[in-house]
Amino acid sequence: PFDQQAISVFLTQVNDSRELTGLSPVDTSTAIKYLLASDYDAPKAIKLYLSCMRQRKAYKLDNVSPYTRCIQKELSSGKLTVLPIRDETEPTVVLVNVSLHDPGTSDPVTAIQAISFQLDEATLSPITQKNGIEIIMDMSDSAFSNIDMDLSRRFLDIMQGGYPAKLNHVFIVSPPLWMRASLRFLLGFLSVKTREKIEIVSPRQLTERLPLTSVPVSLGGLAHVRHQAW
């Protein structure tokens, strides 16, 4: 059962604030989404909501159209795929293929808009809202030309406090040795709580952390990645 008191507190404070700026009120489903991501802690959920709204405004996420050429290019690239939910008790798995990214032809803001568009769709699921998200950042076969520290920072920044879904873990799989120092530098900009959720693992270690049905075949699991179907 949902905590009606927490829902009431969230709706009252958020909608009072929205009314002052001429915005329409949010509904109960929005309150539940943010409360689930915050363990039904109303002040924490309100803080998350406000942070998310700031991020959405900064990246103009409410004006993103999947039909524009630049967004379509990002969406069809396969850089980010949400794997099918196979068990209602398990988190949603988001696969990031770093080797498919080319910083020379991809604008970081456009990439974030496309990523957020997909995450918006994923977080519509009550299962995702309840069980949270596991991110697999596959760096297998990545070259120096694929690395985009600016985009990585923006992506993790959004996930650590600007999205209405619990971030359970980020598994960075097989980063090149020369990349590890840069990763440590990047992690220094994140909160301690977020850093504790990030692990650098091998494919074998990944299969020990997640169910095989949640790990792509390419990394030793049983999940078939069908990006176009997603």
TrEMBL record:
It holds the Pfam family CRAL_TRIO. This is CRAL-TRIO domain-containing protein. Signal peptide: none annotated. SMART domains: SEC14. InterPro entries: CRAL-TRIO_dom, CRAL-TRIO_dom_sf, CRAL/TRIO_N_dom_sf. GO terms for molecular function: phosphatidylinositol bisphosphate binding. It comes from Nematostella vectensis. The lineage of its organism: Eukaryota, Metazoa, Cnidaria, Anthozoa, Hexacorallia. PROSITE patterns: CRAL_TRIO (PS50191). Residues 68-227 form the CRAL-TRIO domain.
